[in-house]
Amino acid sequence: MNALPHLAAIDWISLVIFFACWAGYGWFSEHSRWGEGGLVRTSQAFRLEWARHLLEREVRVADSTLIGNLVTSVSFYANTTIYIIAGLVAALGAADKLLSFTSELPFGGVGNRELLELKLMLVLASFVFAYFKFTWSLRQFNLLCILVGAAPFGKRGEPAIDTYAHRLAGANSLAGDDFNRGIRAYYFGLAASGWLLNPVMLGALAVCILIVLYRRDYASPALHVLRDLP
Q: CB-side exposure of 145: number of CA atoms within 13 Å?
């Protein structure tokens, strides 16, 4: 709190841009009607189709392997985030050395110790948020494994089978959405690190990240393969 009076108008403007880009894009891609054609929501339809085919197979070794690969990916990011958080905590403990180092950068210093700690806390908060999302995604993928183990055998069109397919696809989508939120926190955590160099870098990198995310979710070859390819 002692650092807040030291924030200039450009710092506040950049912070508003940063949080507006992060929260705004999350709402746009996941909840707004304008973001329905994106990669996130398009993949949900394929998760439902996967669930329907899974219930029609008596042997589900391939499905278990695919889910295992998803769990491995989430576990990798969760473990990596722990090391990043540990490094940022260590940087907070060595703020004096970091302050003297950044003062020699051509983009300008970070100010006093309190202001440097505030900037590091923003980066740290971004990766802590990512860690919570990854671990919650991991728990939901574990729940998906339980649902696959308890899945009945049947053909699509049967009410009980269709209901269970939606349950499987729903659990898969929830886990995948939280994984995407964790990845998004990684991106904006990198943008937050720009504040260590210059306040303008924080807002500029947040806008750049927003553009990159939009292009990947709404104008990428991956989306073309899922949605537009005949």
A: 15
